[in-house]
Amino acid sequence: MDGPLLRAAYPAGEACTVTRGPEGTSSHTGPCNEYAWDFGIPADYEVSAARAGTIVFSNRSPYRQNGVEVLIRPPNGRCTHCAHLNRSCHEPGDRVPRGRIVGRSGSTGASTAPHLRFQVIDCDSRVGLPATVQGRAPYARTRPVSVNQLRLTGRTVHRPGPPLGPYPLGRFRAKALLGRGPLGGRAAERSVVVRGQEGAERAASIRPGRSGRGP
Q: In angstroms, what CA-CA distances link 126 with 27, 56, 63, 66, 79?
């Protein structure tokens, strides 16, 4: 079982409903899907890396039912798998820290409404593996609150912005670091440099103009 290092694949502080848990009857069956979770999140919501690792796939899946998918290989060789995305943000070979935005949720592939399918799989065989999210195995109709946060360090922190205009839903925490302002038409990746403890405290003290949510 994956332990508490595996975080929810959406922004810290957000609570998303598990609409379907593992080992279902009509879906989430068979060796490649039985341990998956469906999280009921809207289209174009932030999808974050649940664990640090290397992107091994980030595009429309060769398996039609998955739609656009992202696979991240951590050091232990068990990939985290996010499917049914509207878009992905990185290229194979990119290293991403835990909490980095890797895509935007959607309803591509065999999906009837926007949601995120999330699971842990064997990186080579794609067979699903039993796992926990933040130390638990959430079941249907629960609302796990994410503690998945990109840690501030002395290095540049990159946060992808919405490539198709202002992002309407969820928390785009880069606003808290960079200040509010129109995001449409800006570069697809923004960054802020935080140097040392003093810089981290100063960045953490900056607050967005209103609720911290998108316009």
A: 17, 12, 11, 12, 9
